[in-house]
Amino acid sequence: MQLNIAVLGGDGIGPEVVAQSIKCLRSVEETFGHSFTFRKELVGAAAIKATGDPLPERTLQTCKDSDAILFGAIGSPEFDSDPKAKVWPEQGLLRLRKELGLFANIRPVKVFPTLVKQSPLAKKIVQHTDLVIYRELSGGIYYGHKSINEDNNSATDTCTYTESEISRITHLAFKAAKARRKKLTLVDKANVLETSRLWRRTVYTIAESYPEVTLDSLFIDNAAVQMILNPSQFDVILTDIMFGDILSDQGSVIAGSIGLLPSASVGADYAMFEPIHGSYPDAKDKNIANPVASILSTAMLLQHFKMQEESDAVVAAVLKSFSKKIVTPDIMGSSKYGTNYVGDFIADNIMELDGSFKINDENIDLGKSTII
C-alpha cells in the first residue's frame, strides 16, 4: 500500500516521539512491502514563531493532500503564561480538527499485564481495564462563542451542540460497542446542563437501533469516581469534548503513564493519529520522553487502513520492549534507556508474526473495531 502521511511534530517532545513513530513505519515499509511518504510541516508554537500563525495555510493544505496525519504535541509555556497573548498554540489544533472535520476522538485505555505494577492503583482494581473513550471533537464549549468584558472581570464560554453532531459520533460508539463487549456508557451532566439533556435524548433514541448493546449513563462526577474505583466495568464511554478530555487524562493514571496511551481523531474524509500526552516542555531534547503512545498511535493508523497484521506487529514489538524492560524513565523507574534507544528497539523488532502472537493475550487489543 502507498500512503502519503503529513507529519506535524509540533512543540516540546512532539517532534522527538513522532520521529520514533516514523522509524516504526519505515520498518513496516521494509517488512511488509509498503510505501510511505512523509511530509513535515509546522504547527503550534513552532509555527507561530516562524509565521505568526499556529496553523499556516501550507500546513493545512499538506494535511488535506495526505492520506493521514501523524501528530506530536502542542503547547509552549511562553504562550500559556501570557494573559495578553492574542494567539496561542492550541488554536492551531482546534482549527485543524475543525477544518478537517475530525469529529470523533478515540482513546483506548488499557493496562498492560507486564506493567500492571506501574499503576498507582491496586492490581485487583486495574488489571482487567480495557475500555475506549469516544469523545466528540468538533462542538461544545471549546468551540463556542467566547467573550470577556472591557474590565476583564467577567468572561463567557458558550457550550453549543446540535443533534447531528451528537448523532454521528453516537453511531460510531455503538458500532464499536457492538463489536466489543456490547456495553456503552454515556457520560454527561444532564441534571444541570441543557446540552447534556440533548445528548441523553439523542443517544437513547439512537440506542433503539442497537438492541444488542446495553446502554447506561453516568454524570461526569460519578463517572470520574467509578473510573478509579472500578475501571473494568467500562467498555465504551461516549461523551462530549470537555468531559472526554478530563476522563481520558484520568485514564492515563490508571495505565500508569500518560506516555502509554494513543488516540485517533477521525472524520468522514480525514484521520489524525496522536499520543494523548502534551508537549512536556521540561523534557524537550533530554531524550527521556516516552515514545510508546506515539508508536501505538501509529499502530492505530495502520489499523485504520486495514493493515491489521502490520498493526499487530507494531504492538508485538512494543510488548517485547516491556518484557525486556527497555523503557523510558517514566516506566518501572528505569533510567537506562532513552527515547531514541526505545524507538530503535521497537522499530528493529517489527517483523511478520508467526501465528503464535495473540494480541488479546497481552490485553493490548487495540480493537478491530476501535477505529471503524
TrEMBL record:
<dbReference type="Pfam" id="PF00180">
    <property type="entry name" value="Iso_dh"/>
</dbReference>
<keyword id="KW-0479">Metal-binding</keyword>
<keyword id="KW-0432">Leucine biosynthesis</keyword>
<protein>
    <recommendedName>
        <fullName>3-isopropylmalate dehydrogenase</fullName>
        <ecNumber>1.1.1.85</ecNumber>
    </recommendedName>
</protein>
<comment type="similarity">
    <text>Belongs to the isocitrate and isopropylmalate dehydrogenases family.</text>
</comment>
<dbReference type="InterPro" id="IPR004429">
    <property type="entry name" value="Isopropylmalate_DH"/>
</dbReference>
<keyword id="KW-0460">Magnesium</keyword>
<keyword id="KW-0100">Branched-chain amino acid biosynthesis</keyword>
<keyword id="KW-0560">Oxidoreductase</keyword>
<keyword id="KW-0520">NAD</keyword>
<dbReference type="GO" id="GO:0003862">
    <property type="term" value="F:3-isopropylmalate dehydrogenase activity"/>
</dbReference>
<feature type="domain" description="Isopropylmalate dehydrogenase-like">
    <location>
        <begin position="4"/>
        <end position="346"/>
    </location>
</feature>
<dbReference type="InterPro" id="IPR024084">
    <property type="entry name" value="IsoPropMal-DH-like_dom"/>
</dbReference>
<keyword id="KW-0028">Amino-acid biosynthesis</keyword>
